[in-house]
Amino acid sequence: MSLEMLTPDKVQIKDQVNDWSEAIDIASQPLLQQEYFDERYIQAMIDSVHNLGPYIVIAPEIAIAHARPDESVNKVGLSLLKLENHINFSAEGHYASLIFVLSAVDNTKHLEILKQLAQALGDQQIVERLLQTTDKNKLISILKGE
């Protein structure tokens, strides 16, 4: 499993959304439509943020929405919603413009994707390039290090 699974049909670019839960819902839609998971997984991701706080915001401008693997997930997947205007996940300044959704079928199969994503997003220059582009294919190639 690698970042190769992030394809243009799983990337969306929007100016803005109303709130963080809508951001998670919209970011999830490509994976939902392709049956990576069902509606219960989207609700589980939203419930996790409600219950645990904005832990999915891993750095300024970056959120990786996910929930515990369960029967609502059919396969490992990755999607991305890029917002031109970031959304706040809390009053304490947890904000993101890059909202990834990661679906996991167990506790290990998604770890390589997470590792590659963390490596790419750990580079501030890559993050800046992602924030500046408005092209799906360019977003994907930046993430892949091309």
Automatic annotation (TrEMBL):
One of its GO terms (biological process) is phosphoenolpyruvate-dependent sugar phosphotransferase system. Residues 4-146 form the PTS EIIA type-2 domain. The phosphoenolpyruvate-dependent sugar phosphotransferase system (sugar PTS), a major carbohydrate active transport system, catalyzes the phosphorylation of incoming sugar substrates concomitantly with their translocation across the cell membrane. The enzyme II UlaABC PTS system is involved in ascorbate transport. SUPFAM superfamilies: Phoshotransferase/anion transport protein. One of its GO terms (molecular function) is kinase activity. This is Ascorbate-specific PTS system EIIA component. GO terms for cellular component: cytoplasm. Homodimer or homotrimer. Seems to be a monomer when not phosphorylated. Its main location: cytoplasm. InterPro entries: Ascorbate-PTS_EIIA_comp, PTrfase/Anion_transptr, PTS_EIIA_type-2_dom. PROSITE patterns: PTS_EIIA_TYPE_2. It is found in: Cytoplasm.
